[in-house]
Amino acid sequence: DAGVIQSPRHEVTEMGQEVTLRCKPISGHNSLFWYRQTMMRGLELLIYFNNNVPIDDSGMPEDRFSAKMPNASFSTLKIQPSEPRDSAVYFCASSKILAGELYEQYFGPGTRLTVT
Amino acid sequence: GNSVTQMEGPVTLSEEAFLTINCTYTATGYPSLFWYVQYPGEGLQLLLKATKADDKGSNKGFEATYRKETTSFHLEKGSVQVSDSAVYFCALSDLFSGGYNKLIFGAGTRLAVHP
């Protein structure tokens, strides 16, 4: 398996622009997570999907952030408008969860976002 | 709520030295515990895990034992290599309090191993 795929790997944009980050989870996984990593705040969970449905979005910073999962093999995280404080590395992770069993989360390589 | 505290880095060691990275947790339920490793420019990879008290996780020469009495999950390796240089994250997951395998991460500890 190719693992979790994220694109782009690097994104540089100007403040006020819309940014879309993409993720393809591992085939057969039914859970997807978006994380943000910064020096100041460490790793933060932004949103969790199960079977394509958003279950926990309590970590989404504000209305400028939105995430979708239109099908089991694709998810997007959108920031509109972007601000310099959104600069971070954004990770997507996928897992499977069945009948209360705990399975490993597999992380993608991340997208490094720089907003100038 | 659930939380993880791990020792601040950076930890700088010579090759073949003994490594300990301390990790303690606070949890209301019965969490599973994990160590993840992040190599430069990459995402996190699961290094080892333990799902109940007294379990020992091990992988690639690294070990950690789930100690409920001290709420700890310290990472150890007897002889580190330059290739072990990375950031190490302790994490917990509690299916019963969160309802899903949400990971709560520590701040990460950077390890630098010199030849």
Topology (elements, then pairings):
The complex is a heterodimer of chains A (116) and B (115).
Chain A: E1 5-7, E2 10-13, E3 19-24, E4 31-38, E5 42-50, E6 53-56, E7 65-71, E8 74-79, E9 88-95, E10 106-107, E11 111-115
Parallel strand pairs in A: 2-11
Antiparallel strand pairs in A: 1-3, 3-8, 4-5, 4-9, 5-6, 7-8, 9-10, 9-11
Chain B: E1 3-6, E2 11-14, E3 19-21, E4 23-26, E5 32-38, E6 44-50, E7 56-59, E8 62-65, E9 75-77, E10 86-93, H1 95-98, E11 103-105, E12 109-114
Parallel strand pairs in B: 2-12
Antiparallel strand pairs in B: 1-4, 3-9, 5-6, 5-10, 7-8, 8-9, 10-11, 10-12
Compact description:
Helices cover 0% and strands 53% of the residues of chain A.
The tally of beta strands of chain B, per DSSP, is 12
Q: State the low-pLDDT regions of chain A, or none.
A: none
| Count of beta strands of chain A | 11
The secondary-structure element order of chain A is: EEEEEEEEEEE
* Gap between N and C termini of chain B: 41 Å
Assign an overall shape of chain B.
globular
Explain what this protein looks like in three dimensions.
The complex is a heterodimer of chains A (116) and B (115). Chain A has 116 residues and is mainly β. Chain A is 0% helix and 53% strand. Chain A is globular and about 45 Å long. Chain A starts with a strand and ends with a strand. Chain B is mainly beta. Chain B has 1 helix and 12 strands, in the order E-E-E-E-E-E-E-E-E-E-H-E-E. In chain B, the strands form 3 sheets. In chain B, strands 2, 5, 6, 10, 11 and 12 form a 6-stranded mixed β-sheet that branches. The chains are: A mainly beta (116), B mainly beta (115). The interface between A and B is medium-sized, with 24 and 22 residues.
